[in-house]
Amino acid sequence: MSDVKYRRVMLKLSGEALAGEQGFGINPPVIRKVAEELKEIQEMGVEVAIVVGGGNMWRGEAGAAMGMERAQADYIGMLGTVMNALALQDNLESVGVPTRVQTAIEMRQIAEPYIRRKAVRHLEKGRVVIFAAGTGSPYFSTDTTSALRAAEINADVILMAKNGVDGVYSADPQKDDSATKFEELTHLDIINKNLQVMDTTASTLSMDNDIPLVVFNLNEPGNIKKVVLGEAIGTTVRG
Ligand code: UDP
User: Residue of the nearest CA to atom 19 in ligand 1?
Assistant: First the structure.
């Protein structure tokens, strides 16, 4: 435990990160790999909270673009995150990691409602806590949820797991050869340079509450552990 840089982490897993190469839905081998990596850090004594996204299922904005009412479309998106959370819970438990899912919209038959003090207690007992259904409110994102929950539970860092991209770049590295990677940034840089790491609401919340962020590539095996140990991979974003 002495080598660990971050003792309580908030991992933001986008829906895409659970979809693998198919780009939509849930890819069981991909989730299994994530679960195995999380088991490693949980066994090192790191307290792990996770916010799962839902973009592999549905995005509220896309629904609104097709003519749906935005709030209604966003609720569908929040339900998508619950499906991901249950799949992740199943995988974590099958590799022997105790977990709890807490939802911001009550569905007591399948998960606990979000109760901050209970979540912290679970973390202290070594359980991985998965936060689902976002903030419970439309017009927000799961990036914002991760910043909000990180502040609420006093997480040391937000770990922003990316699908194939190893940090924050000056432009999209898949489209622009001149794109360069940043080693360090501030939340304000992200807002001012419009770097699209997380949405502005999530960035301002992280900035105001002084929560650092590490953006790293989830597809590289062993990266979650490296980040937790403080190895210089990805991009670190400070208050
Ligand atoms: N969402 C919402 N409120 C929240 C979090 C999420 O309405 O607090 C909805 C929103 O429609 C969003 C969808 O859930 O498009 C999926 O979340 P997100 O796009 O953040 O997932 P990710 O991109 O991380 O997979």
Answer: 55
